[in-house]
Amino acid sequence: MVLQITYAGNKTWDWGVNNNINALPAQYYNQGATETAYLNAGVANPMAGQIPASGTLNAASIQRNLLLLPFPEFGSVTEIAIPSGQALYNALQVTVNKPMGHNFNILGTFTWQKMMESFQYLNPTDPSPERYEDGNPTLMGNIAAIYQLPRLSSSPRYLREAFGGWQFNAILRAYNGALFGNPSGVTELSNPRLNISSGAVLSKAALGNARGNYFNTCYENSAGVLQVTGVNIAANVPGCASSSSIPAFELNPSYTLNTVGPRMETVRTIVHPLADASLFKKFPIRGSATFEIRGEFFNVLNTPNFGGPGTTPASTSYGVVTLNEANDARIGQITARFNF
């Protein structure tokens, strides 16, 4: 048996990141309802008649928040390729190769990896991009079985050609699923993993033909009121199971700085292992010339995996994964070729 353990790491920096520099200054955020009314109030527009290409900026009156922008005569102003992006990758890679005898080998690989990125500003006024996990699976394993039929050298030619020397490969692939996006415009109140914030979602029976209960869908509105399914939100909308449920999120009022990263880092999609197989043989012709027949079959058990759940509060798909297959169904292909 051969065991190989490897560490792989990589860090890059100064990636180009884009950001809108024509955003409302941070001092106007998180100030409550009075500030919101102040920012949304209509005032006389000093630019009226000066910007005919924009109906909003050219009007006689305008919302005060638009005049408080660094460049009020424009919409968004994007600074391109700011050298502030970074990425850090670390991985443990394990390979095990075990010859079993009688032309049968087993090969196993395992990877434990994590990529941390800084490619996105949570708020345009932030001094640097947010650091977050990239969302790809962190645990990946493969088990491969390789079996080669005997060449049947002492058998008649028709048996050697028909049955001898074929190689069969089978691979089982498993991984722990990907991260999916956080709800937008929310503040996280508790960990949305169901084994931490329990008893806060609809039952699967109430959701009908869908896969629900991926995370804690209990949330508060911007006034801090629990949104209980069938009480103050519709009966078919996932939310809190009761008034005693623990909320995972609170909807942000207007002009609230974002504090939640782009992905829900404690909940991953559920995936099932997938199996692939191949069968091939090379037939010698003359010298180095060979004729090869190869059959390859992917997802041979036709196992479906689904994507992430909906992440929009107050929608019927919130926390629900619809039955739309995200991976390829069973695929088979047979090829024949001459090698010279």
Record the SSE blueprint.
Layout: E1 2-20, H1 33-40, E2 42-44, E3 61-63, H2 64-67, E4 78-101, E5 104-120, E6 130-133, E7 139-148, H3 157-163, E8 167-175, E9 179-181, E10 186-188, H4 204-207, E11 219-220, E12 249-251, E13 263-268, E14 274-286, E15 289-298, E16 331-339
Please explain how this structure is put together.
The protein is mainly beta. The protein has a domain at 22-76. The protein has helices at residues 33-40, 64-67, 157-163, 204-207; strands at 2-20, 42-44, 61-63, 78-101, 104-120, 130-133, 139-148, 167-175, 179-181, 186-188, 219-220, 249-251, 263-268, 274-286, 289-298, 331-339. The strands form four sheets. Strands 1, 4, 5, 6, 7, 8, 14, 15 and 16 form a nine-stranded antiparallel β-sheet that branches. A three-stranded mixed β-sheet has the order 10-12-11, with no helix packed on it. A two-stranded antiparallel ribbon has the order 2-3. The model is unreliable at 196-209 (pLDDT under 50).
Descriptive tags:
340 residues; mainly beta; 9-stranded antiparallel beta sheet; 3-stranded mixed beta sheet; 4 helices; 16 strands; 7% helix
What's the total number of strands?
Answer: 16
Q: What is the terminal separation in angstroms?
A: 35 Å
Taking the sheet with the most strands, its summary is: 9 strands, antiparallel
The residue ranges in which pLDDT falls below 50 over 5 or more consecutive positions are 196-209
Q: Roughly how much helix do the residues carry, as a percent range?
A: under 10%
Class derived from helix and strand content: mainly beta
Order of helices and strands: EHEEHEEEEHEEEHEEEEEE
Number of helices: 4
